[in-house]
Amino acid sequence: MDGKRVVTAIVLTLIVAWIVLAASLAVYVIIAASLAAMGLWEFLTIAGRKSAGLSRVIAWWVGMGFVASALWGRGQVPSPDAIVLAVGIIVLFGLQLMRPLNRASLLGIALGLTGALYVGWLFGFIIRLKLLPNGTAWVVLLLLTAKAGDVGAYLVGTRWGRHRLLPRVSPNKSVEGALGGLAFSVVGAVAVQRAGWVTSLPEAVILGVLLGALAQLGDLVESMIKRDYGVKDSGSLFPGLGGALDLIDSLLFTAPVLYAYVVLVHGVV
Questions:
Q1: 48, 241 in Cβ contact below 8 A?
Q2: Is the Cβ–Cβ distance between 181 and 130 less than 8 Å?
Q3: 52, 120, 151, 221: which sits with the fewest CB atoms below 10 Å from its CB?
Q4: How many Cβ atoms are within 10 Å of 17's Cβ, its own excluded?
């Protein structure tokens, strides 16, 4: 399994590097939207185990509407996100009225909207980030800090992990691994800064810690969801790594925060 994990990680790293650095914007958007689509469907499939009232297809389309809104309007008023959310809520509630039983109706609506927002809306920011001036560099910073943190947490945790971080959510994660992941995230951010792409050195360190912590939070949140529903992986798309949601979980909280940071601190719109 470890061999599969390493091979898959290497292949994905090469593909992602090409997508971010060399591929056209259209290819970038198509790949990002595809990952969001698969990850959202995996989430809704897991959530459907406890709610027969979950309208997976409609919730999926609402979530993908959020992804599309990252391109449509690009922040113009009225906000595309607000339109998608309003229409999605109306449709999801309307569909519940057509079900023969009222059992778990609100739960089905809540889970559908949660999936649409959690995966569709949050992951849409990785497209918004790419569209910003110097967007490629910001995406590289995002990916390098998040994924370097994944590698650091795994390496340090397996070698020196002694104290459990949050055993009720993820029994294999350790405090030592979390600290190692943060250190690797900072190194990744500093590497981007040293390459002359973005940020000063102090800013790189701050972003490394912030994004590294948020990436680990995203990973823990997905672990909590999977543990609640009794599944090991969200899917089997990537051998040794799991599904699309397993691949992007560390980006769901980091992409919106980095986007907000760039817009507010650097005054980029």
A1: no
A2: no
A3: 52
A4: 13
pLDDT band at 91 (very low <50, low <70, confident <90, very high): confident
Rounded to an integer, what is the distance from CA 223 to the centroid of its chain? 13
Q: Is the pLDDT of residue 7 over 60?
A: yes
How do residues 201-248 score in pLDDT, each as one tens digit?
999 999 999 999 999 999 998 988 888 888 888 888 888 778 899 889
Q: Please answer whether residues 111 and 151 qualify as being in contact, where contact means their C-beta atoms are separated by less than 8 angstroms.
A: no
Alpha helices, DSSP H, located in 22-134: 25-47, 56-69, 80-97, 105-115, 122-123, 125-131
Print the domain residue range for 30. Answer: 2-265
Rounded to whole angstroms, how far apart are CA atoms 124 and 116?
11
Say how many domains are in the chain: 1
Cβ 221 vs Cβ 227: under 8 Å: no
